[in-house]
């Protein structure tokens, strides 16, 4: 078993240096390509950042495994051992179009259990971090335990796409919730939205399809402050599989499920 304090020191150092490189890249020409469709973007900076982490992890922790969005890590069959789940840039569309609202996301799991979580808002130089059992922080400020909130007083992160005709969820399901809450927000980076749930800036965040690197770190952060993270139909997330994600303050999670999400069916 690793010395988590030691791992934590390395991650924080590497994440800041990687962030520095990303900020410097704003001055140079990006090489932008598409992956599965014309809105699924990847740049040379995504790829170089993932390789930056992998090189260092392999040298420093040769017995750890890596799952990275850009595919430079390992091909994992199970959750045994220590696994780094890395999204070098979460919110690539924002990175390309806005040069803000994106994050580096790293979740470190041991035998399937979340041990360390990091979400680095590169442009604001704000690092959200948590170590299981040792609290969650934004930089040096400890994040408070999340408190219950009434649905009508809550702000929920949700993309407008899910209340239009789409192939994952019946467009009628989320309309009543969107109408009843105080407000909705959509930031375009799942990791940042989960960091906002952990820090109480929004009360919940839901989306129909994320990959493990989008939610691995956020799950650790939110659970460390007493929030709940499941799939939209209330199931535990598998950290090696794509899934819908429903993350909320305690109490709000149960109330939204009971009032709006009973018996929903999702298309995978
Ligand atoms: P990315 O920028 O790392 O690809 C945007 O709504 C959020 O969802 C971002 O966090 C984005 O991560 C993620 N995302 C976009 N398309 C996705 C897909 N097809 N599967 C899983 N996650 C996706
Ligand atoms: Ca990404």
UniProtKB/TrEMBL annotation:
<feature type="binding site">
    <location>
        <position position="89"/>
    </location>
    <ligand>
        <name>Mg(2+) 1</name>
    </ligand>
</feature>
<dbReference type="GO" id="GO:0006020">
    <property type="term" value="P:inositol metabolic process"/>
</dbReference>
<keyword id="KW-0460">Magnesium</keyword>
<keyword id="KW-0479">Metal-binding</keyword>
<dbReference type="InterPro" id="IPR000760">
    <property type="entry name" value="Inositol_monophosphatase-like"/>
</dbReference>
<dbReference type="GO" id="GO:0046872">
    <property type="term" value="F:metal ion binding"/>
</dbReference>
<dbReference type="Pfam" id="PF00459">
    <property type="entry name" value="Inositol_P"/>
</dbReference>
<feature type="binding site">
    <location>
        <position position="90"/>
    </location>
    <ligand>
        <name>Mg(2+) 2</name>
    </ligand>
</feature>
<dbReference type="GO" id="GO:0008934">
    <property type="term" value="F:inositol monophosphate 1-phosphatase activity"/>
</dbReference>
<keyword id="KW-0378">Hydrolase</keyword>
<dbReference type="InterPro" id="IPR020583">
    <property type="entry name" value="Inositol_monoP_metal-BS"/>
</dbReference>
<feature type="binding site">
    <location>
        <position position="214"/>
    </location>
    <ligand>
        <name>Mg(2+) 1</name>
    </ligand>
</feature>
<feature type="binding site">
    <location>
        <position position="69"/>
    </location>
    <ligand>
        <name>Mg(2+) 1</name>
    </ligand>
</feature>
<feature type="binding site">
    <location>
        <position position="87"/>
    </location>
    <ligand>
        <name>Mg(2+) 1</name>
    </ligand>
</feature>
<dbReference type="GO" id="GO:0007165">
    <property type="term" value="P:signal transduction"/>
</dbReference>
<dbReference type="GO" id="GO:0046854">
    <property type="term" value="P:phosphatidylinositol phosphate biosynthetic process"/>
</dbReference>
<protein>
    <recommendedName>
        <fullName>inositol-phosphate phosphatase</fullName>
        <ecNumber>3.1.3.25</ecNumber>
    </recommendedName>
</protein>
<dbReference type="InterPro" id="IPR020550">
    <property type="entry name" value="Inositol_monophosphatase_CS"/>
</dbReference>
